[in-house]
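[Automated response] Your request has been received and processed.

Submitted sequence:
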Amino acid sequence: MPAVQLKNNGKLYSKLLFTITLCIVLTLLVSSLFYFFTYMQIDLKKAYQSDVSNLTQTSKEVISMTESAQSVSFQIYRTFTVSKLMFYNEPNIYDVTAAMNELENYLSSMPFIESIYVYNSANGQFYTASRQGESGTFNKEDLADQGILDILDNFQKYRPFTPIPRTYTTVSLAGEQLTKAYTYLGYDAIGKTQKINSAVIINISSAWINKDIGANKNDTEGKSYILDNQDRLLSGDTLASKKLNEADAAFINERIKNQDSGYAVTNFEGKKSLISYTSPDSLEWQYVRVTPYKQVTKAIYSIRNTTILIAVVILVIGLLISWLLSRMLYRPIHQIMDKMNILETEKRNSSYTIRQNMLRSLIQGSQSLQTSTLQQKLSHSGITFDFHSRYRVVMLKIDQLAALKQTRGDDLHVYKFAVMNIAWEIGLKNYRVETVDMDADYVIMLLNRLDDSEEPDDELLRSVLTQIQQSSLDYLKIGLSVTYSPEGLQAQQLSNLYKLVKEASQHRLFYGLGSLIDAQDIISLKSKEYIFPVDKERKLTDALMTSKTEEAKKLFADIVQETADYPIHVVQLAISHLTMTVNNILFTIQKNNSLDVEASLSIHIPTPDHFETVQELNEVFFSLFDDIQTKLSTKRSTKQGDLIRKINELIHKEYANPNLSLNWIADELDMSSIYLSRVYKQQTLAAIVDVINNVRLERAKEYLESTDCSIVDIAVKSGYTSSSYFHRMFKKSFGVTPSDYRKMKLG
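Generated structure:
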């Protein structure tokens, strides 16, 4: 309604007051609704963070206990007295007593261990030390914990030292009872049959590990679960497997399994719940917390109801006051009319250089379009671009600039001018265009819409930019990577759009040469939170240290490629972090192996800004990895050759020593017997035990030929403590007994 009519009928003031009151109430309701949903998300996220914190702590406890269990298992395997239980078919009572004392010592020194089993498959015996149940020696049939037999029969399903959540029966003076524990299985299954020869089983109390699940005392209705690597959903407190209906099972498989940590609000077991879950840890386990939705949001709903009540009260009071004021006050409202005539004359009296400098300063933000003086300069310089209507900022970035500088040298600025002309001519068919040389490896285009339509022009824009790329490639043999901004509506947005496009253009690293990048897609990446993959970094370190070059290359490429979905500063930080990591690995390798490898990567690897594509980055690192591999292989081969020579020298020198064996040699060289055996077999294709026997038998042959000593004395001189064993080995190797051999040689 016109203002004059409202004034004449005397209702303008009351309508204004009514309108203001309604606006206040609507603003309150709308803002309250916004805050309601915002606080709802905050509350959900807070509950999620609390749940994930507790669940993550439990995950760390499990992993920590896994390392402890592995350490204890290795110690038990290396304990001489206990090893007799695993490898002797009929250990004597003294060996059993000593070994059981060792197991009890382990049990008493580590309160988190419920029980320890040592299993010998040859005699089918279990040697157990238990905190609550019986300890001693048991046959399979007499063992109370029958569940361990199923695990041993199907040991291929479980990785060594991966916790197996379960409950098992223990028998004590108080009777049978169920024990909740995480079982860690270490076994020896060498051989073609792949059957367990021996095993060490450590059961760790779940109470020590799961104490952080459900640590929120105010949350009495929530439940915690473990999604293990066997696709079982286990209760956090009972370790019992959870039976799910089809809908819940589908939700677990689709939304939680193998996903990054997060939360969801959905129906679980027929009740609306907040479900928080963690990412898979190094054991491929995930932890899930289910909390009733009402319990999480009851405080927020109370605030919502209070807010609605306040809005209703304000509406009633406001309408009453408006009605009273409209009767008491009346003031004429004069219509105010402002007429403005803006005359703009466009003249192109300024030179190309002045226009370029002016546009460059506007784009970089060193000058503002808000001053009338600058607007007059723009008008006089012949710039027809309208910064107050819809416009875009486009960056044309030259690909393979370093190669172009080598081939085209000082003429490169001429080619940039040609690129600007091509862009101007093609863009002018559908837009008002200005092109600006930014004195770098790129050119900026400013594009004005010719119409005031609010319909998106993305399809037309991409078609125009593709034509510019193709024409530059056809006529100039120069590839262009193009990045374009969202539409700007205000002049002061220009420098911000330029910065956005400049940042987005750096994603050419992943998009590749000749790419067409929408900066709007890059904006959406800023909301994503990046977590550096420490586990992959650790695997990369292990791969490089153990000369697994191809695995290291794949891990490095995966880590870099994962940053493609994050802002460019995240990419740069990740690459810098990887550079430091590889640098440290190089230093360690050089220190440990005295390799001729540069200890600093700054000589080899430029900053991430210097790489145009991720392939270039990978090639630099991969070349370094190959260099490390070559030098390590040479060094390792030399070291192993020296080790084989030392072993052979000890065998030929100590062959008469009856204690000469693999373990004796390992003690002399202060090395692991398992490592010595593996390296010797790899290098010579023979076992150390066989070589010892061969050397002793050859010496025995020499004694038989050159002396008249008795067979018993020759056996002792050759290192054999049993003459019958010497006879048997001699005949097995040479086909005759020692006596027959002497007769045959002496004739």
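Summary generated for your ticket: The two ends are 139 Å apart (CA to CA). Confidence is low (pLDDT under 50) at residues 1-10, 214-218, 331-350, 597-603.
If you did not submit this request, please reply to this message.
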